[in-house]
Specification:
The chain is of the alpha/beta class. It folds into 2 domains: 188 residues, Rossmann fold (3-Layer(aba) Sandwich), CATH 3.40.50.300; 167 residues, RecF/RecN/SMC, N-terminal domain (Glutathione S-transferase Yfyf (Class Pi), Chain A, domain 2), CATH 1.20.1050. 41% of the residues lie in helices and 22% in strands. The strands form 4 sheets. Strands 2-1-4-5-8-9 form a 6-stranded antiparallel β-sheet. The chain has a 5-stranded parallel β-sheet with strand order 10-13-14-3-15, sandwiched between helices. Helix 4 packs across helix 5, helix 5 packs across helix 6 and helix 5 packs across helix 7. The protein is globular and about 70 Å long.
Length: 368
Protein backbone atom coordinates (compact mmCIF):
# COMPACT_ATOMS: atom_id res chain seq x y z
CA UNK A 1 0.00 0.00 0.00
CA UNK A 2 1.16 3.53 -0.78
CA UNK A 3 -0.07 6.92 0.36
CA UNK A 4 -1.80 8.84 -2.41
CA UNK A 5 -2.83 11.88 -0.37
CA UNK A 6 -2.30 13.24 3.15
CA UNK A 7 -4.69 15.81 4.68
CA UNK A 8 -3.95 17.91 7.78
CA UNK A 9 -6.83 19.74 9.47
CA UNK A 10 -5.95 21.91 12.48
CA UNK A 11 -2.80 19.83 12.99
CA UNK A 12 0.07 21.83 14.50
CA UNK A 13 0.21 25.10 12.47
CA UNK A 14 -1.84 23.74 9.58
CA UNK A 15 -5.49 24.77 9.33
CA UNK A 16 -6.43 22.76 6.26
CA UNK A 17 -3.87 21.44 3.79
CA UNK A 18 -3.80 18.46 1.44
CA UNK A 19 -0.78 17.05 -0.39
CA UNK A 20 -0.67 14.49 -3.17
CA UNK A 21 2.38 12.26 -2.85
CA UNK A 22 4.41 10.63 -5.58
CA UNK A 23 4.24 6.83 -5.62
CA UNK A 24 8.04 6.91 -5.60
CA UNK A 25 9.74 9.95 -3.99
CA UNK A 26 8.32 13.29 -2.84
CA UNK A 27 10.53 16.22 -1.84
CA UNK A 28 9.11 18.74 0.64
CA UNK A 29 11.25 21.87 0.73
CA UNK A 30 11.11 25.34 2.21
CA UNK A 31 12.74 27.40 4.96
CA UNK A 32 13.04 26.21 8.54
CA UNK A 33 9.90 26.37 10.73
CA UNK A 34 7.54 26.32 7.74
CA UNK A 35 6.06 22.94 8.68
CA UNK A 36 8.01 20.24 6.83
CA UNK A 37 8.51 18.10 9.92
CA UNK A 38 4.82 18.45 10.83
CA UNK A 39 3.86 16.72 7.58
CA UNK A 40 6.34 13.92 8.26
CA UNK A 41 4.98 13.66 11.80
CA UNK A 42 1.40 13.44 10.53
CA UNK A 43 2.28 10.60 8.13
CA UNK A 44 4.13 8.69 10.84
CA UNK A 45 1.27 9.33 13.28
CA UNK A 46 -1.29 7.72 11.00
CA UNK A 47 1.09 4.82 10.37
CA UNK A 48 1.93 4.03 14.00
CA UNK A 49 -0.79 5.78 16.00
CA UNK A 50 1.84 7.79 17.90
CA UNK A 51 3.85 10.98 17.40
CA UNK A 52 7.65 10.92 17.37
CA UNK A 53 7.72 14.55 18.55
CA UNK A 54 5.41 14.60 21.54
CA UNK A 55 3.42 12.31 23.80
CA UNK A 56 1.06 15.22 24.58
CA UNK A 57 -1.90 15.34 22.21
CA UNK A 58 -2.63 18.96 23.15
CA UNK A 59 0.56 20.05 21.39
CA UNK A 60 -0.63 18.56 18.09
CA UNK A 61 -3.98 20.36 18.07
CA UNK A 62 -3.88 23.78 16.42
CA UNK A 63 -4.04 26.62 18.92
CA UNK A 64 -7.61 27.83 19.24
CA UNK A 65 -9.12 24.60 17.89
CA UNK A 66 -10.91 21.89 19.84
CA UNK A 67 -9.84 19.02 17.63
CA UNK A 68 -7.43 18.02 14.90
CA UNK A 69 -7.70 15.50 12.06
CA UNK A 70 -5.05 13.72 10.07
CA UNK A 71 -6.24 11.53 7.23
CA UNK A 72 -4.74 9.74 4.28
CA UNK A 73 -5.80 7.74 1.25
CA UNK A 74 -3.98 4.46 0.65
CA UNK A 75 -3.86 2.77 -2.73
CA UNK A 76 -2.67 -0.62 -3.93
CA UNK A 77 -1.19 0.15 -7.33
CA UNK A 78 -0.90 -3.40 -8.66
CA UNK A 79 -4.33 -4.76 -7.75
CA UNK A 80 -8.04 -4.07 -7.99
CA UNK A 81 -8.24 -3.57 -4.22
CA UNK A 82 -10.31 -0.54 -3.17
CA UNK A 83 -8.62 2.53 -1.76
CA UNK A 84 -8.54 2.76 2.03
CA UNK A 85 -9.13 5.94 4.00
CA UNK A 86 -7.46 6.23 7.41
CA UNK A 87 -8.13 9.03 9.86
CA UNK A 88 -6.99 9.95 13.36
CA UNK A 89 -8.97 12.52 15.28
CA UNK A 90 -7.14 14.26 18.12
CA UNK A 91 -8.62 16.49 20.83
CA UNK A 92 -7.80 17.81 24.27
CA UNK A 93 -10.35 15.57 26.00
CA UNK A 94 -13.25 17.97 25.65
CA UNK A 95 -15.34 18.71 22.54
CA UNK A 96 -18.29 21.12 22.69
CA UNK A 97 -18.27 20.87 26.46
CA UNK A 98 -18.34 17.09 26.58
CA UNK A 99 -15.57 14.73 27.66
CA UNK A 100 -14.29 12.44 24.94
CA UNK A 101 -11.39 10.18 24.06
CA UNK A 102 -8.34 12.19 23.11
CA UNK A 103 -7.53 9.93 20.17
CA UNK A 104 -10.03 8.24 17.83
CA UNK A 105 -9.18 5.97 14.89
CA UNK A 106 -11.33 5.33 11.84
CA UNK A 107 -10.84 3.12 8.79
CA UNK A 108 -13.14 3.87 5.86
CA UNK A 109 -15.42 5.72 8.27
CA UNK A 110 -15.66 2.90 10.84
CA UNK A 111 -14.22 3.35 14.33
CA UNK A 112 -11.32 1.04 15.17
CA UNK A 113 -9.17 0.12 18.14
CA UNK A 114 -5.58 1.25 17.81
CA UNK A 115 -4.30 -2.31 17.36
CA UNK A 116 -6.77 -2.86 14.50
CA UNK A 117 -5.94 0.50 12.92
CA UNK A 118 -2.17 0.44 12.66
CA UNK A 119 -0.36 -1.88 10.29
CA UNK A 120 -2.28 -0.82 7.18
CA UNK A 121 1.03 0.64 6.10
CA UNK A 122 4.39 0.83 7.84
CA UNK A 123 6.80 3.73 8.01
CA UNK A 124 10.31 4.39 9.29
CA UNK A 125 11.44 7.92 10.02
CA UNK A 126 14.92 9.47 10.12
CA UNK A 127 15.22 12.91 11.72
CA UNK A 128 18.14 15.01 13.00
CA UNK A 129 17.26 14.24 16.63
CA UNK A 130 17.97 10.57 15.92
CA UNK A 131 21.69 11.35 16.04
CA UNK A 132 21.24 10.75 19.76
CA UNK A 133 20.76 7.07 18.97
CA UNK A 134 24.53 6.95 18.55
CA UNK A 135 25.74 9.54 21.01
CA UNK A 136 22.90 9.50 23.54
CA UNK A 137 21.71 7.31 26.40
CA UNK A 138 20.97 3.59 26.59
CA UNK A 139 17.33 4.47 27.15
CA UNK A 140 17.11 6.05 23.71
CA UNK A 141 18.64 2.98 22.04
CA UNK A 142 16.30 0.62 23.88
CA UNK A 143 13.38 2.79 22.75
CA UNK A 144 14.54 2.41 19.13
CA UNK A 145 14.35 -1.39 19.45
CA UNK A 146 11.06 -1.35 21.34
CA UNK A 147 9.29 0.95 18.89
CA UNK A 148 10.34 -1.24 15.96
CA UNK A 149 9.13 -4.46 17.59
CA UNK A 150 5.93 -3.08 19.11
CA UNK A 151 4.73 -2.11 15.64
CA UNK A 152 4.92 -5.72 14.47
CA UNK A 153 4.44 -7.90 17.55
CA UNK A 154 1.57 -7.41 19.97
CA UNK A 155 3.02 -10.09 22.24
CA UNK A 156 6.19 -8.00 22.51
CA UNK A 157 4.13 -4.91 23.31
CA UNK A 158 2.24 -6.82 26.01
CA UNK A 159 5.41 -8.31 27.51
CA UNK A 160 7.09 -4.90 27.58
CA UNK A 161 4.11 -3.38 29.40
CA UNK A 162 3.93 -6.29 31.86
CA UNK A 163 7.68 -6.19 32.47
CA UNK A 164 7.74 -2.45 33.15
CA UNK A 165 4.78 -2.65 35.52
CA UNK A 166 6.28 -5.62 37.36
CA UNK A 167 9.65 -3.87 37.59
CA UNK A 168 8.10 -0.89 39.36
CA UNK A 169 6.41 -3.16 41.92
CA UNK A 170 9.54 -5.27 42.36
CA UNK A 171 11.68 -2.19 42.97
CA UNK A 172 9.23 -0.98 45.59
CA UNK A 173 9.43 -4.34 47.36
CA UNK A 174 13.23 -4.37 47.20
CA UNK A 175 13.28 -1.02 48.98
CA UNK A 176 10.77 -2.27 51.57
CA UNK A 177 12.85 -5.42 52.16
CA UNK A 178 15.94 -3.26 52.55
CA UNK A 179 14.11 -1.24 55.21
CA UNK A 180 12.91 -4.50 56.82
CA UNK A 181 9.26 -3.60 56.25
CA UNK A 182 8.32 -6.82 54.41
CA UNK A 183 9.88 -10.32 54.19
CA UNK A 184 12.07 -11.40 51.28
CA UNK A 185 9.51 -14.03 50.26
CA UNK A 186 7.26 -11.27 48.87
CA UNK A 187 9.62 -11.08 45.88
CA UNK A 188 8.87 -14.58 44.58
CA UNK A 189 5.90 -13.71 42.33
CA UNK A 190 7.53 -10.59 40.90
CA UNK A 191 10.80 -12.42 40.27
CA UNK A 192 8.86 -14.93 38.17
CA UNK A 193 6.99 -12.17 36.32
CA UNK A 194 10.03 -10.10 35.34
CA UNK A 195 11.88 -13.30 34.40
CA UNK A 196 9.09 -14.56 32.13
CA UNK A 197 8.62 -11.30 30.25
CA UNK A 198 12.27 -10.25 30.42
CA UNK A 199 13.45 -13.42 28.71
CA UNK A 200 10.91 -12.91 25.91
CA UNK A 201 11.97 -9.28 25.38
CA UNK A 202 15.65 -10.17 25.18
CA UNK A 203 14.99 -13.06 22.81
CA UNK A 204 13.14 -10.77 20.39
CA UNK A 205 15.71 -7.99 20.72
CA UNK A 206 18.48 -10.44 19.89
CA UNK A 207 16.60 -11.67 16.80
CA UNK A 208 15.95 -8.10 15.66
CA UNK A 209 19.58 -6.95 15.91
CA UNK A 210 20.88 -10.23 14.50
CA UNK A 211 18.90 -9.57 11.33
CA UNK A 212 20.98 -6.43 10.66
CA UNK A 213 23.78 -8.67 9.33
CA UNK A 214 21.62 -9.45 6.28
CA UNK A 215 21.07 -5.83 5.22
CA UNK A 216 23.18 -4.30 2.46
CA UNK A 217 24.28 -0.69 2.92
CA UNK A 218 26.85 1.65 1.29
CA UNK A 219 29.02 1.60 4.45
CA UNK A 220 29.78 -1.58 6.39
CA UNK A 221 28.43 -1.21 9.90
CA UNK A 222 27.94 -3.86 12.57
CA UNK A 223 25.85 -3.82 15.74
CA UNK A 224 26.67 -5.53 19.03
CA UNK A 225 23.81 -6.32 21.39
CA UNK A 226 24.82 -5.73 25.02
CA UNK A 227 22.08 -7.34 27.10
CA UNK A 228 21.82 -7.29 30.86
CA UNK A 229 20.88 -10.96 30.84
CA UNK A 230 18.04 -12.01 33.09
CA UNK A 231 17.84 -15.63 34.28
CA UNK A 232 17.06 -17.56 37.44
CA UNK A 233 20.78 -17.98 38.17
CA UNK A 234 21.48 -14.27 37.77
CA UNK A 235 18.46 -13.34 39.87
CA UNK A 236 19.90 -15.49 42.64
CA UNK A 237 23.40 -14.09 42.08
CA UNK A 238 22.25 -10.46 42.31
CA UNK A 239 19.53 -10.96 44.94
CA UNK A 240 21.44 -9.64 47.96
CA UNK A 241 22.98 -6.76 45.99
CA UNK A 242 19.55 -5.65 44.78
CA UNK A 243 18.19 -5.66 48.31
CA UNK A 244 21.22 -3.69 49.47
CA UNK A 245 20.66 -0.93 46.88
CA UNK A 246 16.85 -1.18 46.87
CA UNK A 247 16.26 -1.64 43.12
CA UNK A 248 16.70 -4.13 40.26
CA UNK A 249 20.21 -4.40 38.82
CA UNK A 250 19.67 -6.76 35.88
CA UNK A 251 17.18 -7.20 33.07
CA UNK A 252 16.03 -5.68 29.74
CA UNK A 253 15.75 -2.21 31.31
CA UNK A 254 19.57 -2.20 31.39
CA UNK A 255 20.14 -3.41 27.80
CA UNK A 256 22.20 -1.50 25.25
CA UNK A 257 23.81 -1.90 21.84
CA UNK A 258 26.94 -0.51 20.16
CA UNK A 259 27.57 0.33 16.50
CA UNK A 260 30.93 -0.26 14.81
CA UNK A 261 32.37 0.39 11.39
CA UNK A 262 33.16 -3.05 9.98
CA UNK A 263 36.85 -2.23 9.56
CA UNK A 264 37.25 -1.46 13.25
CA UNK A 265 35.94 -4.90 14.26
CA UNK A 266 39.02 -6.47 12.70
CA UNK A 267 41.20 -4.56 15.16
CA UNK A 268 42.19 -6.12 18.47
CA UNK A 269 40.50 -3.30 20.40
CA UNK A 270 37.62 -2.01 18.25
CA UNK A 271 36.02 1.30 19.21
CA UNK A 272 32.38 2.14 18.69
CA UNK A 273 31.43 4.85 16.24
CA UNK A 274 29.93 7.02 18.98
CA UNK A 275 33.42 7.64 20.33
CA UNK A 276 35.59 7.65 17.22
CA UNK A 277 33.26 8.21 14.24
CA UNK A 278 33.07 11.48 12.33
CA UNK A 279 29.83 13.44 12.29
CA UNK A 280 29.10 12.20 8.78
CA UNK A 281 29.82 8.57 9.74
CA UNK A 282 27.55 8.88 12.78
CA UNK A 283 24.78 10.29 10.60
CA UNK A 284 25.17 7.38 8.19
CA UNK A 285 25.21 4.93 11.11
CA UNK A 286 21.84 6.24 12.27
CA UNK A 287 20.49 5.94 8.74
CA UNK A 288 21.84 2.37 8.63
CA UNK A 289 19.92 1.53 11.81
CA UNK A 290 16.76 2.93 10.24
CA UNK A 291 17.28 1.06 6.98
CA UNK A 292 17.81 -2.16 8.95
CA UNK A 293 14.57 -1.47 10.83
CA UNK A 294 12.81 -0.86 7.52
CA UNK A 295 14.06 -4.13 6.00
CA UNK A 296 13.10 -6.05 9.15
CA UNK A 297 9.57 -4.62 8.99
CA UNK A 298 9.32 -5.55 5.33
CA UNK A 299 10.46 -9.09 6.02
CA UNK A 300 8.00 -9.59 8.87
CA UNK A 301 5.03 -7.86 7.24
CA UNK A 302 5.63 -8.84 3.60
CA UNK A 303 4.91 -5.28 2.46
CA UNK A 304 7.02 -2.30 1.45
CA UNK A 305 7.48 0.34 4.15
CA UNK A 306 7.40 4.11 3.66
CA UNK A 307 10.74 5.83 4.29
CA UNK A 308 10.53 9.31 5.86
CA UNK A 309 13.79 11.27 5.68
CA UNK A 310 13.60 14.58 7.53
CA UNK A 311 16.58 16.80 6.71
CA UNK A 312 18.74 13.83 5.74
CA UNK A 313 20.93 15.64 3.18
CA UNK A 314 22.55 18.22 5.47
CA UNK A 315 26.07 17.49 6.78
CA UNK A 316 26.67 14.94 3.99
CA UNK A 317 29.12 15.36 1.15
CA UNK A 318 28.13 14.77 -2.47
CA UNK A 319 29.35 11.16 -2.41
CA UNK A 320 27.28 10.33 0.66
CA UNK A 321 24.22 12.09 -0.81
CA UNK A 322 24.47 9.90 -3.91
CA UNK A 323 24.65 6.78 -1.71
CA UNK A 324 21.67 7.86 0.40
CA UNK A 325 19.47 8.63 -2.59
CA UNK A 326 20.43 5.28 -4.09
CA UNK A 327 18.61 3.62 -1.18
CA UNK A 328 15.23 4.99 -2.29
CA UNK A 329 14.69 2.76 -5.30
CA UNK A 330 11.71 0.44 -5.08
CA UNK A 331 9.81 2.09 -2.24
CA UNK A 332 7.82 5.22 -1.52
CA UNK A 333 9.78 7.89 0.33
CA UNK A 334 9.39 11.44 1.59
CA UNK A 335 12.41 13.77 1.87
CA UNK A 336 12.43 17.20 3.50
CA UNK A 337 15.03 19.91 3.04
CA UNK A 338 15.50 23.57 3.86
CA UNK A 339 17.93 23.88 0.93
CA UNK A 340 16.46 25.44 -2.21
CA UNK A 341 19.00 23.45 -4.24
CA UNK A 342 17.63 20.12 -2.97
CA UNK A 343 15.52 19.67 -6.10
CA UNK A 344 18.61 19.96 -8.27
CA UNK A 345 20.41 17.44 -6.04
CA UNK A 346 17.62 14.90 -6.47
CA UNK A 347 17.49 15.44 -10.23
CA UNK A 348 21.11 14.28 -10.50
CA UNK A 349 20.39 10.89 -8.93
CA UNK A 350 16.64 10.17 -9.10
CA UNK A 351 14.55 9.98 -12.25
CA UNK A 352 11.09 9.67 -10.67
CA UNK A 353 10.19 12.19 -8.01
CA UNK A 354 7.91 15.15 -7.41
CA UNK A 355 8.51 18.22 -5.27
CA UNK A 356 6.36 20.50 -3.15
CA UNK A 357 7.56 24.01 -2.37
CA UNK A 358 5.91 24.74 0.97
CA UNK A 359 6.70 28.45 0.68
CA UNK A 360 4.53 28.63 -2.43
CA UNK A 361 1.82 26.54 -0.76
CA UNK A 362 1.72 28.97 2.14
CA UNK A 363 1.65 32.03 -0.13
CA UNK A 364 -1.19 30.49 -2.16
CA UNK A 365 -3.26 30.15 0.98
CA UNK A 366 -3.31 26.38 1.27
CA UNK A 367 -1.49 26.52 4.61
CA UNK A 368 -2.52 28.36 7.76
Amino acid sequence: MKIKRIVLNNFRNYQLSAYDLNESTTLLYGPNAIGKTSIVEAIHLISTGDSFRSSKIDEMVNFGSELSRVSCKLVELDSNQDDENLEILLNRGMVQGRKTQKRLYTLNGAKKRKRDFIGKFYSVVFRPEDMRLIEGSKTRRRKFIDEALITLDWQYARSLKMYEEALVKRNKLLWQIKEKLVPKTTLKYWNMTVLKHGEYLQKKRQEFLEYFKEVEFPLLFRVEYVPSIISEDRQEEYGFKEIAVGHSLIGPHKDDFLVYLDESIKEKNPHDIATYGSRGQQRMAVLWLKICQLHYIEKQSAQKALLLLDDILSELDEGMIERVLGLLNGRQSIITSADNDAREQLERYISDFSSINLSEEMNNGTKF
